[in-house]
């Protein structure tokens, strides 16, 4: 964000966007690189493609297995092996980039590619740096816009100091229609601020209420621009919609309170799902770790009601509480969920980040998005 702030103050907004994207979500970026489709490469050079895919698999397996090792000596050996495989993987990538058509293979995307994230509506990146705080608006086409009001005094109201300068640009510079889609992409300190709750709480002279953010636009969050671009891929082949409700009211290990309204919540959701969709419910003794994981893989829409826990020290151990074992973030990341479209996470702490590393967004909602879900409702 410091580099992006420098680029913004130098007037190079496109470079600022590229720097923000490159410097954030490193865990997801690495994991997604290891899953990059290589159909074009396979056509051009099958040998290189096979070598790259095999090394990607080995690196991914080594990274995931090392995350669960507790013995110090074994962990050191695993780390050494991981570094060796990573060096081989990087050499394979360098060889691929020597091919003219693949010179940018796995390199950070340029602004032209990132702008695809704004295809269905502007994306607002909020940059919090030690040097300046500002916002960059990426429109559907054309150059990015920079609201001129510096957003430095974070102790002022979210509406007046953060969102109002952005809304002024959306309305007056971009002429964006009311109730258009926008995406919020906060960085650093902004990830801890409930931007969606921005509200002027003012009354106009005629007695009407001054509109707030949700009165003006339909908004969502995205952890990175690449995540938004990636979430719209792989939807060319439509599948028959299927909806599963997963509920587990138990607290796990006898700790905490049972969720007494889970079953009535599942019944309500089941009634709201169109009859044309294939509907199933998993609850009680059936809502196990394996059962929930299988349901995530087999359905396009998911409603999950249970206890959720964000682990601040071991984020990959963040989990949903099931009947037998926890369904962890690592469990979800290890699966390719090919037909996933939407997940409603009616659980606690599913979109809570880490204040020490706010730009990594390693939480349950991000894990589901990485695994293939296009849209997710999470809980701050």
What does this structure look like?
With 380 residues, this protein is of the alpha/beta class. 38% of the residues lie in helices and 14% in strands. It is built from 14 helices and twelve strands. The protein has helices at residues 2-9, 13-23, 26-33, 39-44, 46-66, 72-97, 111-114, 158-173, 213-216, 225-231, 262-272, 289-298, 329-333, 364-371; strands at 123-128, 133-138, 181-186, 218-221, 242-248, 278-283, 301-306, 308-309, 319-320, 327-328, 342-346, 375-377. The strands form three sheets. Strands 6-5-7-11-12 form a five-stranded parallel beta sheet, sandwiched between helices. Strands 2-1-3-4 form a four-stranded mixed beta sheet, sandwiched between helices. α1 (2-9) packs antiparallel against α2. The longest helix is centred in the N-terminal third of the chain and has 26 residues, at 72-97. The protein is globular, with a radius of gyration of 22 Å. Residues 149-155 have low confidence and may be disordered.
Short description:
This protein has 14 helices and 12 strands. With 380 residues, the protein is α/β, with parallel strands linked by helices.
Which secondary structure elements does this structure contain, and how are they paired or packed?
Layout: H1 2-9, H2 13-23, H3 26-33, H4 39-44, H5 46-66, H6 72-97, H7 111-114, E1 123-128, E2 133-138, H8 158-173, E3 181-186, H9 213-216, E4 218-221, H10 225-231, E5 242-248, H11 262-272, E6 278-283, H12 289-298, E7 301-306, E8 308-309, E9 319-320, E10 327-328, H13 329-333, E11 342-346, H14 364-371, E12 375-377
Parallel strand pairs: 1-3, 3-4, 5-6, 5-7, 7-11, 11-12
Antiparallel strand pairs: 1-2, 8-9, 9-10
Helix pairs in contact: 1-2, 5-6
């Amino acid at each position: 964000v410091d580099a992006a702030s420098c680029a913004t103050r130098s007037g190079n907004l496109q470079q600022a966007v590229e720097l923000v994207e490159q410097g954030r979500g490193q865990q997801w970026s690495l994991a997604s690189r290891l899953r990059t489709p290589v159909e074009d490469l396979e056509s051009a050079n099958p040998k290189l493609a096979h070598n790259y895919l095999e090394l990607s698999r080995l690196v991914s397996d080594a990274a995931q297995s090392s995350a669960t090792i507790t013995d110090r000596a074994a962990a050191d050996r695993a780390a050494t092996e991981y570094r060796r495989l990573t060096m081989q993987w990087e050499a394979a990538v360098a060889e691929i980039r020597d091919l003219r058509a693949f010179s940018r293979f796995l390199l950070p995307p340029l602004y032209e590619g990132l702008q695809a994230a704004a295809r269905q509506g502007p994306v607002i990146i909020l940059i919090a740096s030690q040097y300046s705080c500002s916002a960059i608006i990426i429109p559907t086409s054309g150059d990015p816009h920079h609201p001129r009001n510096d957003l430095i005094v974070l102790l002022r109201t979210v509406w007046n100091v953060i969102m109002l300068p952005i809304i002024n640009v959306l309305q007056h510079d971009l002429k964006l229609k009311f109730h258009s889609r926008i995406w919020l992409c906060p960085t650093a300190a902004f990830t801890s601020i409930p931007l969606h709750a921005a509200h002027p709480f003012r009354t106009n002279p005629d007695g009407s209420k001054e509109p707030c953010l949700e009165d003006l636009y339909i908004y969502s969050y995205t952890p990175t621009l690449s995540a938004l671009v990636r979430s719209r891929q792989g939807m060319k082949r439509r599948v028959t919609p299927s909806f599963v409700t997963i509920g587990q009211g138990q607290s796990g290990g006898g700790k905490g309170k049972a969720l007494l309204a889970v079953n009535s919540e599942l019944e309500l959701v089941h009634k709201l799902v169109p009859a044309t969709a294939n509907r199933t419910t998993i609850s009680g003794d059936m809502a196990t770790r394996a059962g929930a994981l299988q349901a995530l893989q087999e359905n396009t829409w998911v409603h999950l009601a249970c206890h959720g826990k964000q682990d601040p020290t071991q984020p990959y151990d963040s989990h949903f509480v099931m009947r037998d074992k926890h369904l962890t973030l690592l469990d979800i990341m290890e699966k390719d969920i090919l037909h996933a479209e939407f997940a409603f996470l009616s659980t606690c702490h599913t979109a809570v980040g880490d204040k020490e590393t706010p730009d990594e967004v390693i939480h349950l909602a991000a894990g589901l998005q990485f695994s293939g879900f296009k849209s997710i409702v999470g809980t701050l």
